[in-house]
């Protein structure tokens, strides 16, 4: 029986503790509970997840959620379980016993909301394991991933229409914060939404101030960034396109007496969790991060988001700055533009679009290895195919495409297994001729945003299909001077976190120098905390050899300065 408005308001209060729905949440939820599908485009922070979470707990059966990020799933499930709500997730970072335990709970009817990644459907037997479960609703989060023209294309999302059919065509909610009209059409086609209603809340965020600062040199960028952070204070995120650039920026801020948090792929999982936790809990932290950081971070008071380098697309840029100012207060968003940085994104675009022949060569190489494939690591594969630039990402792109199609399974250096060679028509579907051109055009639109003189917000609104937006927004550097807006909208900040003020659960931090008995002077590159056990990856100063040491058993002392 359809829920009444009173029923939903009561359920909202009792389940999540919210007194009121926001925007179009209630209309979306009513549609979903009444058996309808919908495409939902809501700005970051508008509460998309509630649109499928509340129906899961007030409706019947199981709601299945497809989400692209494991960390995001873990965070959302943890938050729901703290409210004693029956939700779980199944993904590759769990051991086999834990995955089976969770699936058994689903099969027994103890779970109402299940999160998985789209890649989970490639695991033999997973779809069959859901066969006895009544899936009454399907939600696809970050639905722009179904489109090759979206800013975060995931090939496995392309199979979700087929998977939906195998699940019995349950009502489907496709949700995203950033989708151009073209991407919206792709979402409808892939997920077989037909003429399902569109709920679009627009993308207007009047409290965000948008600015672009042109810098001639990296030294200019260092000076400008430091000055901006001193003015805005924290909490603040500084996005970097390259880990190498992030580490250089960290070193420069440390030299200037500022201790930032950091988040990137070369940190251990424990360190990433600790850095995210510290940022979440702080009212003044600055975190330097690659673009993997931010999704699932429920922090309303972010006062500044600065981009050290040019993002690849306007969609990605707007999603990242959308994490600022969710409390409705003023938030400062600035791109530090240097023309030379364009090369970084040009390289990323080329790496994301290898020639089909290159992908076939890798597949044939893996086939030829036979049982030796299990000893193959990623560096060895790069060494075989990348003669000039080991940072070239084409090998990773090829492996991702081959995994998505079931041509290989597993990961290099762990459990990589060859299954079959790709067909020529598959390669053509994965890498159509026009994709590289479209990706380059998307980068060009990002450059135009950074270099043209028009109202920043009008440019972005037009890109997303809102041409009625008038110039003179009052919240960008073209329409109102930066200092005027800062004075009017952003209160005087607290001091930035100083080097001596950092707290950590570990006795040492990455980047510190230790004198270790038997090893001498060592530089800490990673810290691993597991309960009371603390280990560190270190680099020996004399030989540059890498070692892992047990900090609870070995004798060591910190070397200052």
Q: What's a quick, concise take on this entry?
A:
It contains 20 helices and 20 strands.
- The span between the termini is 69 Å
The number of E-state strands comes to: 20
The top level CATH class name of the largest domain: Alpha Beta
CATH topology of the largest domain: Rossmann fold
> Which segments are poorly predicted (pLDDT under 50) over 5 or more consecutive residues?
none
Largest sheet: 7 strands, parallel
Class computed from helices, strands and strand pairing: alpha/beta
CATH architecture of the largest domain: 3-Layer(aba) Sandwich
Spatial strand order of the main sheet: 3-4-2-5-6-1-7
Number of discrete domains: 4
State the share of residues found in helices, binned by percent.
25-40%
Query: Tell me, what's the shape?
Result: globular
| Structure annotation, total helices | 20
Task: Give the overall pLDDT as a whole number.
Answer: 87
User: Over the alpha carbons, how many angstroms does the gyration radius reach?
Assistant: 24 Å
Strand content: 15-25%
CATH superfamily of the largest domain: P-loop containing nucleotide triphosphate hydrolases
């Amino acid at each position: 029986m359809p829920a009444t408005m009173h029923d939903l308001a009561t359920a909202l209060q009792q389940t999540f503790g919210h007194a009121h729905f926001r925007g179009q949440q209630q209309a979306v939820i009513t549609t979903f509970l009444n058996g309808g599908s919908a495409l939902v485009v809501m700005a970051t922070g508008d509460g998309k997840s509630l649109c499928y979470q509340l129906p899961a707990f007030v409706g019947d059966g199981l709601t299945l959620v497809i989400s692209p990020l494991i960390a995001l799933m873990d965070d959302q499930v943890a938050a729901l379980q703290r409210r004693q709500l029956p939700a779980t997730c199944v993904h590759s970072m769990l051991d086999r016993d834990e995955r089976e335990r969770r699936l058994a709970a689903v099969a027994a009817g103890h779970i109402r909301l299940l999160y998985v990644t789209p890649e989970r459907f490639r695991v033999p037997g997973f779809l069959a394991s859901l066969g006895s479960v009544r899936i009454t609703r399907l939600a696809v989060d970050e639905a722009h991933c179904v489109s090759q023209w979206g800013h975060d294309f995931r090939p496995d999302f392309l199979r979700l229409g087929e998977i939906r059919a195998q699940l019995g065509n349950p009502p489907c909610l496709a949700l995203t914060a950033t989708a151009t009209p073209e991407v919206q059409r792709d979402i409808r086609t892939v997920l077989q939404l037909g003429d399902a209603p569109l709920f679009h809340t627009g993308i207007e965020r009047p409290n965000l101030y948008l600015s672009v600062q042109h810098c001639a040199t990296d030294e200019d960028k260092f000076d400008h960034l430091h000055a901006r952070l001193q003015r805005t204070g924290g909490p603040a995120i500084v996005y970097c396109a390259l880990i190498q650039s992030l580490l250089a920026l960290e070193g420069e801020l440390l030299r200037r007496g500022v201790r930032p948090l950091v988040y990137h792929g070369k940190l251990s999982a424990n360190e990433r969790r600790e850095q995210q936790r510290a940022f979440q809990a702080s009212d003044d932290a600055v975190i330097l991060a690659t673009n993997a950081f931010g999704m699932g971070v429920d922090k309303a008071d972010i006062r500044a988001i600065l981009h050290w380098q040019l993002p690849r697309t306007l969609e990605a840029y707007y999603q990242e700055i959308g994490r600022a100012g969710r409390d409705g207060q003023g938030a400062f968003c600035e791109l530090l533009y240097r023309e030379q940085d364009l090369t970084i994104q040009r390289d990323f675009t080329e790496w994301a679009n290898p020639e089909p022949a290159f992908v076939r060569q890798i597949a044939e190489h893996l086939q030829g290895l036979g049982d030796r494939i299990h000893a193959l690591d990623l560096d060895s594969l790069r060494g075989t195919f990348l003669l000039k630039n080991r940072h070239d990402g084409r090998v990773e792109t090829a492996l991702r495409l081959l995994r998505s199609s079931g041509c290989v399974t597993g990961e290099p250096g762990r459990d990589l297994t060859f299954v079959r060679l790709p067909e020529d028509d598959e390669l053509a579907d994965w890498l159509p001729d026009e994709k590289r051109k479209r990706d380059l055009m998307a980068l060009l639109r990002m450059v135009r945003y950074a270099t043209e003189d028009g109202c920043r917000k009008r440019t972005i609104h037009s890109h997303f299909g809102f041409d009625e937006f008038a110039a003179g927004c009052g919240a960008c550097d073209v329409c109102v001077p930066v200092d005027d807006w800062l004075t009017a909208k952003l209160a005087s900040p607290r001091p930035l976190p100083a080097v001596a003020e950092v707290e950590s659960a570990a006795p040492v931090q990455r980047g510190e120098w230790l004198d270790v008995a038997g090893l001498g002077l060592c530089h800490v590159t990673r810290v691993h905390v597991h309960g009371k056990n603390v280990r560190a990856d270190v680099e020996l100063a004399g030989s540059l050899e890498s070692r892992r040491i047990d900090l609870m058993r070995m004798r060591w002392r910190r070397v200052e300065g």
